[in-house]
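[audit] Reproducing an earlier prediction to check determinism. Same input, same settings, fresh worker. If the tokens differ from the archived copy the diff job will pick it up downstream; this log only records the rerun itself.
[audit] input (512 residues):
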Amino acid sequence: MQKNQWLLYVLAFIKFILPFFLQNSFYQPHRDEFLYLAEAHHLAWGFMEVPPLLSVFAWLTNLFGNSMFWIKFWPSLFGAFTYIITGKIILSLGGRAFALFLAFLPFIFGAYLRVHYLFQPNFLEIFFWTLIAYCIIQYIQTEKIKWLYFFGVSVGWGMMSKYSVTFFVVSILIGLLLTAKRKIFTNKHFYYSALIAFIIFLPNLIWQYNHRFPVLHHMKELQETQLQYISTTGFLIDQLLMNLPCVFIWLAGLYFTIFSRYGKKYSLFVWAYVSVIVLLIVLHGKNYYTLGVYPVLFAFGAVHLESFTALRSKAWRYAFVMIPFILGIPFIPIALPVAKPEPLANYYKTMDIEKTGLLKWEDLHNHPLPQDFADMLGWKGTAEKAAAVYKSLPANEQSKTLVYCRNYGFAGALNLYGKHFGLPEVYSDNGSFLLWMPDKYEVQNLILIGHDIPDSADLVFQQFEKMTIKDSLNEPLSRENGVKIILYENGNNKVNGMIENGIAEMKKEFTR
């Protein structure tokens, strides 16, 4: 047992360090990472897009210097933690070294390789889904009350990391109701643990109430711009593609809980899995929203396949290890940006990756790079160009120049890199940045970073005497290629009042 514990932690360490060896240093943070890093400067009990827990790690990242190492440190660390919990489930089921190694493979060959590279709330969500499953398994095995309380704490902090934890909690409850484990609902400690979860989550709930539940506004926006285009067939196919090299392991996990005499007592997780899939199909959830449900299935599957090979023939083990390596190694350049953009794009073309749909963006068209990789290009160069425009202004005008971005990616990027280049604080009314905009303005000039030149309907921009396109981003493989840096000069005496009224009107939707 001690030997297996050591193996678990060695594999977890490999999981932690692997992305740092694979990722190419050419890439910059992802657009969403800039938003979450910006939250470190506006700590609160909630944000327009997400609960507050990720902002704590953003604050620590900022404390340690905002280097790429620290930005990627937290997803890598929680990826290792998630594997450790998966391994603990395996050991609690009587699994040994082969099962631990088999369950390790999905974490290095598949979607988890990318999730545990991006500073986004998904890495926390997957961790807490796995921790919630572990607590339930431990309670089933031991019937010790403490695991119900750990379950409540896990749910509470999970909800403080990402609201979609709700899907798994609801699915677990459905699984409990549909199996003999429903007797848990007669245990008073279960309800005490639910109260603990509610208390942990309460500060964010109050914040949501005070801001008129922006999460609903955010979900509506997602439905209108992204989620409505997700098809049921595509969603289900993606469940196989995301973990294709190791799909047989989680399928074995489902088999274990449905047909195995020992595994049937965990059949609630089959119902939980089905419930998650159905809920996300009905709500048009993105494919990766399900990733938190698979680690427990990988644990079950690894134990079952270890037992199967021990009873039949250990020669099967070579096949079960070789398949993920053969299928998984070509997948690594799709999961992580291991080379510069042009060589990667050529690799995808050579391998005909376009046919898999893995190069399809939210616009439903294929592109040379995955959308996530295209979202990691051009930010620093744009910040440098915007700073050059700002510094070209007379010194007495710089203090009365507003730098404004159409989207939160550029606002976050220019704030992250801007101090080095001499930019003032940069603003946007996109997402949470709206809440951070000042109420009062003394604007003479305005620098706009956006793709489109404002038309006559954008009245604020009509209040300036002169408009000049000063520069643009020329990085063909960037998703933001062609974004313009536009200088508006000599605003009239109406402009500040119009900006203040416009911002106040937008903020009103999110204030009581």
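[audit] rerun output stored. Observation attached for the diff report: The first strand starts at residue 401 and ends at 405.
[audit] end
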